[in-house]
Specification:
The chain is mainly alpha-helical. 52% of the residues lie in helices and 7% in strands. The chain has two domains: 217 residues, HUPs (Rossmann fold, 3-Layer(aba) Sandwich); 81 residues, Tyrosyl-Transfer RNA Synthetase, CATH 1.10.240. The protein contains 14 helices and five strands. The strands form two sheets. The protein has a three-stranded parallel β-sheet, sandwiched between helices. The protein binds tryptophan (TRP). The site of tryptophan has 14 residues, from β1 and α8.
């Protein structure tokens, strides 16, 4: 058979500690699914984390906690190098070059910076925050990433990356591909506080991938359902109900029955939530088990990062050589 060249995936996350279901449905699930048919690179965006928090005292532990979730979720570090952005210096070099290729007004129009400023109530936007997508473009293009599996909130950053790649190529010569984003159906999983807001650590509305069944049930118990379904036998509207969205994702085999029960009033919210919690916990059980070996021995994670960083540097150096060559530097 004619072996086709595998395309390259680059994706990453900011190290905010243990991951939640939104990370799984928005990105990690896709990373794992695509790992066999692509060359994957996964980066811990520790420099990006500085845009929302200058306190670095938890950064290391947050990195370890997050990478354990990647590994437990199915990322195979032999196949897919896992590394920290801060340990591969070429990210900052390429970021500097890219910062010449995009205007300040384009970056100010980036919708995700507006969302962050609103959600996190940021008062003063720093230079690095404005340049967030420029650093992300450097992350992706340093590995000549062709596919970027991300949550919906990152689409604007991939668009900026494409613009920068085009601009570089037309100015100095063809070095970079124009990467395509890839989002999942559940790219935007709503948080426990209702259907309007996505699951996010800063909103405190998450179910962690490491939550045990009791915690999952407790968290679901407080989740809002259809406001018109007040008593057990009142008919409900699954399409406006948060818990039904979770059934759709984590209990797809029973959605027809849940819908029927809810709409007819036979199924009360308490029971519906119990069933939902049980399915979520079933889904999480192997994940929690998978974390254990790394939790007991965090130096395994450190070794994985060191190895990933070594392999990432090889590719990063190659790309920078092509960049310098095209720009006739050096
Ligand atoms: N901005 C991404 C997030 O907050 C993290 C990230 C950094 C990233 N560099 C990347 C994602 C490159 C995809 C590709 O989730």
């Amino acid at each position: 058979m004619n072996e086709m060249r595998k395309k390259t995936i680059l994706s990453g996350m900011r190290p905010t500690g243990k991951l939640h279901l939104g990370h799984w449905t928005g990105a990690l699930e896709n990373w794992v699914a695509l790992q066999e048919s692509y060359n994957n690179y996964h980066l811990v965006a520790d420099y990006h984390a500085l845009t929302t928090n200058l306190d670095t005292s938890n950064l290391y532990q947050n990195t370890i906690d997050m990478v354990i979730d990647w590994l437990a979720g199915g990322i195979d570090p032999e196949k897919s190098p896992v590394f920290r952005q801060s340990q591969v210096k070429e990210h900052t070099e390429l970021h500097l070059i890219f910062s010449m290729l995009i205007t300040k007004s384009r970056l100010e129009r980036n919708p995700s910076i507006k969302d962050q400023v609103r959600d996190l109530e940021i008062e003063n936007i720093v230079y690095g925050h404005l340049g967030y997508p420029v650093l992300q473009a450097a992350d992706i293009l340093l590995y000549r990433g062709e596919l970027v599996p991300v949550g919906e909130d990152q689409l604007s950053h991939v668009e900026i990356t494409r613009e920068i790649a085009r601009r570089f190529n037309s100015t100095w010569g063809d070095v970079f591909p124009e990467p395509e984003p890839r989002v999942t159906k559940f790219a935007r999983l709503p948080g426990l506080d209702g259907k309007d807001r996505k699951m996010s650590k800063s909103m405190n509305n998450t179910i962690l991938l490491s939550d045990d069944p009791t915690t999952v049930d407790q968290k679901l118990r407080k989740a809002p359902t259809d406001v018109l379904k007040v008593r057990r036998n009142d008919p409900g509207r699954p399409d406006v109900c948060l818990v039904y969205t979770y059934h759709e994702k984590f209990n797809p085999g029973e959605t027809a029955e849940i819908r029927q029960g809810c709409e007819s009033g036979e199924l009360g919210c308490v029971d519906c939530k119990k069933r939902c919690g049980a399915r979520i916990s079933e889904f999480l059980a192997p994940h929690i088990e998978g974390r254990r070996r790394y939790e007991e021995n965090p130096s395994l994670v450190e070794d994985i990062l060191r190895d990933g960083e070594k392999r990432a540097r090889v590719v990063a150096r190659e790309t920078m050589a092509a960049v310098h060559d095209a720009m006739k530097l050096g």
